[in-house]
């Protein structure tokens, strides 16, 4: 593979690359062709790609355990066939009065190690084809590149808005996105005006960054990205290019989160963590006829489309410079294709937990240079209640209320729990929980059972597995500050005669006292609302923190009521969800 960024930038588009080494290469080193070998321990075969002297491209699959001699014999056979074809052409040319043809011959095929030793024909392929070895096919020389960096996927978002970051999806083998080289181009003029439908491309950004934010001047023009895969060890593979499917469009102007970004321009310092909790409105719920006509009739249809909302979400989340981001209602495909690649570019690592029988779930992101993942302990409430010995007592109590028990078991809600460790101080560990409780307004009793399961599970992790580590519990709890669920989390107990035990009428009554050992507080207090739609507004989302170990340094102000209601309610052209993100800076006590 190519060495060094300059080499990658200048010569990576050509099929042959520079590089010497190996026996008998002498002055031909500079003109050596490439033989690209892909050899992965988990696969039985290795692949070998090169171009024969007659110009024909070869792609061979050979068993990794096969002796090298058999692979070389196959290469010789292929080369001889190529010679024969060339001789035929030459004979035809001679018949037409051309020069005499060279007689066809089977070329000698040998492999030499990087230090010039001939590799024994009995050596297995997997051991023989090493990086830097030199393959001889007759007079031709090929430098072996073993597992060079290669792009497996390069994609641009479908919707591009001026003023909003464009985050490509980059998947690579033997390479990492942070080590790849990026060059952004724009059309010189719109394709419609250019002769033949496609205009010339000019460099769009002086700095070669992975994320590009188009300016208003680029509205109407398409973008192109050239990416050269790199592995961080100064090895670069062949570049790939991708063009945007449509032009850059005008952005919506001011968004509800712009003023909040004034508080979150920088990542907070050591000993501090910025946490975000946000229900981002799953596409599976935003794109239904019911959503468009009943839930959000005030929202422009284009602003409910996923591609549009993704632009806003990526800019909003990137601008919070958070260390921990807990998201709810994350579509599986949105996590994989959009959020994970975008937030990865801003230094965040993502974890996903899908809901049972659903297409959406929970995502937790953490800042890579401040935190590392120690372990994951995700559960589905229904499954945990049925089978985990931790919940035996609760199971026994619930058995007296079969209707309620059945309803809890039918729910698809999950709990995501990640234990993280500080990168600078390994003695500092933290248990980060994320959930989205049952939504129904009359489901207070179900939510109480769900939160009891959650807190028992968290207790097992933060008291038994990692004794006395602090907890942060984020989520959409679908519970207002006056609810039993909020009171239970906050106070540590709930009485068996609390009114929420009969939230759905007498036949679904279930009375039981509950308690948990944590001292938790809502870090962002009790805002007037975190969810604002046409028919409802209220506080449903919280970041609960361990009072004994953590304290709140600052709460980032929520958007003003005027901003929230500019377009009547949420979501809107300037806000991507029906919920509002909660953001706070925490410090260890």
Automatic annotation (TrEMBL):
Subcellular location: Mitochondrion matrix
Gene Ontology terms for molecular function: metal ion binding; poly(A)-specific ribonuclease activity
Residue ranges annotated for the 2',5'-phosphodiesterase 12-like N-terminal domain, each copy included: 148-249
Transmembrane segments: none
One BP term from GO: mRNA processing
Record keyword tRNA processing present: no
Principal location listed in the UniProt entry: mitochondrion
InterPro entries for this protein: CCR4/nocturin_mRNA_transcr, Endo/exonu/phosph_ase_sf, Endo/exonuclease/phosphatase, PDE12-like_N
Cofactor(s) required for function per UniProt: Mg(2+)
Superkingdom, taxonomy of origin: Eukaryota
Keywords assigned: Exonuclease, Hydrolase, Magnesium, Metal-binding, Mitochondrion, mRNA processing, Nuclease, Phosphoprotein, Transit peptide
This protein's name: 2',5'-phosphodiesterase 12
């Amino acid at each position: 593979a190519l060495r060094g960024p300059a080499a990658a930038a200048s010569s990576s588009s050509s099929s042959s690359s520079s590089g010497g080494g190996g026996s008998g290469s002498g002055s031909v080193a500079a003109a050596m062709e490439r033989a690209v070998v892909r050899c992965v321990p988990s696969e039985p075969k290795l692949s070998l790609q090169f171009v024969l002297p007659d110009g024909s491209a070869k792609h061979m699959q050979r068993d990794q355990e096969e002796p090298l001699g058999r692979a070389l014999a196959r290469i010789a056979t292929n080369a001889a066939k190529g010679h024969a074809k060339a001789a035929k052409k030459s004979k035809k040319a001679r018949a037409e009065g051309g020069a005499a043809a060279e007689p066809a011959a089977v070329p000698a095929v040998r492999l030499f190690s990087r230090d010039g030793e001939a590799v024994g024909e009995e050596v297995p392929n997997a051991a023989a084809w090493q990086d830097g070895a030199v393959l001889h096919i007759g007079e031709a020389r090929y430098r072996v590149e073993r597992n060079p960096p290669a792009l497996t996927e390069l994609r641009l978002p479908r919707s591009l808005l001026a003023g909003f970051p464009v985050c490509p999806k980059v998947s690579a083998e033997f390479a990492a996105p942070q080590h790849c080289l990026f060059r952004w181009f724009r059309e010189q003029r719109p394709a419609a005006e250019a002769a033949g439908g496609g205009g010339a491309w000019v460099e769009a950004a002086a700095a070669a960054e992975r994320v590009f934010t188009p300016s208003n001047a680029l509205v109407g023009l398409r973008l192109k990205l050239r990416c050269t895969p790199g592995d961080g060890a100064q090895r670069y593979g062949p570049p790939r290019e991708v063009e945007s499917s449509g032009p850059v469009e005008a952005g919506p102007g001011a968004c509800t989160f712009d003023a909040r970004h004034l508080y979150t321009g920088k990542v907070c310092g050591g000993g501090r963590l910025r946490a975000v909790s946000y229900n981002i409105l799953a596409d599976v719920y935003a794109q239904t006829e019911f959503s468009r006509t009943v839930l959000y009739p005030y929202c422009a249809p284009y602003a409910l489309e996923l591609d549009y909302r993704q632009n806003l979400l990526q800019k909003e989340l990137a601008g919070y410079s958070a260390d921990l981001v807990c998201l709810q209602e994350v579509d599986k495909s949105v996590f994989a294709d959009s959020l994970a690649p975008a937030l990865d570019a801003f230094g965040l690592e993502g974890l996903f937990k899908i809901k049972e029988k659903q297409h959406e779930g929970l995502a937790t992101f953490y800042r890579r240079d401040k935190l590392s993942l120690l372990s994951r302990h995700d559960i589905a409430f229904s499954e945990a209640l049925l089978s985990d010995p931790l919940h035996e007592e609760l199971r026994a109590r619930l058995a007296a209320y079969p209707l309620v028990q059945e309803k809890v078991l039918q729910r698809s809600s999950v709990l995501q729990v990640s234990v993280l460790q500080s990168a600078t101080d390994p003695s500092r560990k933290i248990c980060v929980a994320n959930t989205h409780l049952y939504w129904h307004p009359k489901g207070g009793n179900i939510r109480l059972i769900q939160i009891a399961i959650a807190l028992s599970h968290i207790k097992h992790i933060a008291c038994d597995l990692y004794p006395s580590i602090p907890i942060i519990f984020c989520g959409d709890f679908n519970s207002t500050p006056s609810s039993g669920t909020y009171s239970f989390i906050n106070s540590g107990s709930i009485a068996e005669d609390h009114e929420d035990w009969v939230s759905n009428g007498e036949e679904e009554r279930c009375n039981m006292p509950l308690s948990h050992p944590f001292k938790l507080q809502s870090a962002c207090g009790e805002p007037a609302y975190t969810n604002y739609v046409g028919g409802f507004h209220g506080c449903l989302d919280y970041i609960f923190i361990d009072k004994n170990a953590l304290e709140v340094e600052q709460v980032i102000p929520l958007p003003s009521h005027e901003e929230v209601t500019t377009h009547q309610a949420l979501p809107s052209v300037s806000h991507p969800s029906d919920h509002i993100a909660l953001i706070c800076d925490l410090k260890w006590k």
